[in-house]
Design brief:
The chain is 21% helix and 29% strand. The protein has 15 helices and 34 strands. A hairpin with a 3-residue loop joins β27 and β28. The chain starts with 15 loop residues before the first strand and ends in an 11-residue tail after the last helix. Its main location: cytoplasm. GO terms for molecular function: actin filament binding; phosphatidylinositol-4,5-bisphosphate binding. Keywords: Actin capping, Actin-binding, Calcium, Cytoplasm, Cytoskeleton, Repeat.
Length: 695
Amino acid sequence: LQNMKMVPVPEKAYGTFFEGDCYIILHTKRTSRGSAVDLHYWIGKDSSQDEQGAVALYVTQLDNALRGNPVQHREVEGHESETFQSYFRNGIIYKKGGVASGFKHVETNMYNIKRLLHVKGKKHVSATEVALSWDSFNKGDVFLLDLGKVLIQWNGPNCSIAEKSRGLALARSIRDSERGGRAQIGIIDNEKDSPDLMQIMKMVLGERRGELREAIPDAKADELQKANVRLYHVYEKDNDLVVQEIATRPLTQDLLQHEDCYILDQGGFKIYVWRGKASSLEEKKTAFTRAVGFIQAKGYPSSTNIEVINDGAESAMFKQLFQRWTEKDETQGLGKVYTTGKIAKVEQVKFDTTQLHARPELAAEQRMVDDASGEIEVWRIEDLQMQPVNPKTYGQFYGGDCYLVLYTYLRSGRPHYVLYMWQGRHASVDEITACALNAIELDKKHGDEAVQVRVTMGKEPTHFLAIFKGKLVIYEGGTSRAQKSTPEPAIRLFQVRGTDEMNTKATEVPARASSLNSSDVFLLTTSQVCYLWCGKGCSGDEREMAKMVADIVSKRDKHTILEGQEPAEFWEALGGKAPYASEKRFQEQITHYQPRLFECSNQTGRFIMTEVVGFCQEDLDEDDVMLLDTWEEIFLWVGKASNTYERNEAIASAKEYLKTHPAGRDLATPIILVKQGYEPLNFTGWFNAWDPYKW
């Protein structure tokens, strides 16, 4: 903003901001549903009140011109949102002064420069101009002494590899974009080893007296704070602004009425304003002013992030704060179409597993590592040790036990491993712990290369179903051990779901009429006979799969009966008739969830996650533990050089993440541990153009 007018910034200078100015950033990205538009206004810490007012006004006008499609953000220097930071992959540079003070964004004589930049951050890098003095330095950050023709990168002794490499990327980007590639970069990683560069630094900064300061860690919001979401209704009453709290987490979508405006406060970490389609123009106009007023009333810092969102054009960040978010006519995954309001059974789409290697994104979407043709070995935890299970009974799991399933498959000629830890609902705490410890031992035997997957009974992932080729049976209680303490029940009822060998499982349910459901096939086993009960909504494929399972659960004669034509003995076995679910099954549905990547840090005893928006493989650093949330599963990626504490805390962090997630997530979501260099296809498929040889 120059003299209160919008002036375009030359592309060369993108990412460089004068602290005395305000800026507007328009970002458009193609998505599967058209395009996503974000509009940010950025406030420099030395900009005037007038400029701040003007820039907010321009954003409102731009939003109108773009028919209310953009998500609008207010950004304050040094406290930018993760979305904003994702646009400037090499980092953001803050310059002293402003356009008005005679500086121009691109100057011809770029060589008579003398400045010191303090570089901070690992995932999101920013560089601030600081005083040319040794007092500006500390032990934990990277500093760039920019002398025009020479750039000296000084690495603090406590810097991580990632911080050093991000610092270098920034130095190179200054050289290439501001100096046309004509500048030299020198690096001081250890002062003793670089006497010549130190000589130059001393000429500019003088001799250093005294010790360097320790680095000051950034104050960041932790997950507990972010989980504290509150929704407020905002309206005018007799010329007064009324803000009324209406709900806390978990929030549901129906709380948002199209006639009104709402403020969603995410623990003071970020403020969202949602503007209903049918709310008045006046209400829409004052969205930012209200949010700023709200921040002041709450005593939050003035740098708090604000995002203004229009009804129907919500950002992914906003939607994930709700328990469930449904879009109109949403197409999901591969050719599944949902229409809100209509309840229908969703047909499973068959997909061609031979395509998995050619299209890793398919592996990710279908949650499949391979075509399930590998080898399996199964162990039961008995007396806290691993006991091999008889291969004849592979696929039969009892709720009183814990199991380890090792799946081995070949990829480009060498073995890869997936290790499933299946936890029965009635297993003891000791057994669950022993299961995890034995998994670590088994993983060690395979060179620490296995992908470990925690499976909670009833929440088995797709690939787990596929490797048992339609023979997966889950018994509610009991055990598969030789000496059984309790006799098996005489009458059992199993619900069978699935249309082929890749997606079928049978689950024991209470043997009562109320357990039935018209959408499915059920097997009722008694001491004389095994009934195959076919609900009105089941398909021929489902009936075929149920016949296969029937031979596993019962050696008796099989009788197929159709819903509505049951013999009296059938109801007797179930203890009499009773009402049961007869509507067609409604697929539990979630919007097409955008995967999210976070850096996890548990250093300070507080659990802190930094989101990386628009992520790619480059964002996985050797010294990181990263969490990838794809909604149906949680991946933990463990870098080779990550510290032991964070590695050991990884699973606990993932559980903590699910627990504190504002949307009230299912705590039984599978958690998958992936190690650097041994990433399976269903992980790499979420990244664009994954390079298997990068490391």
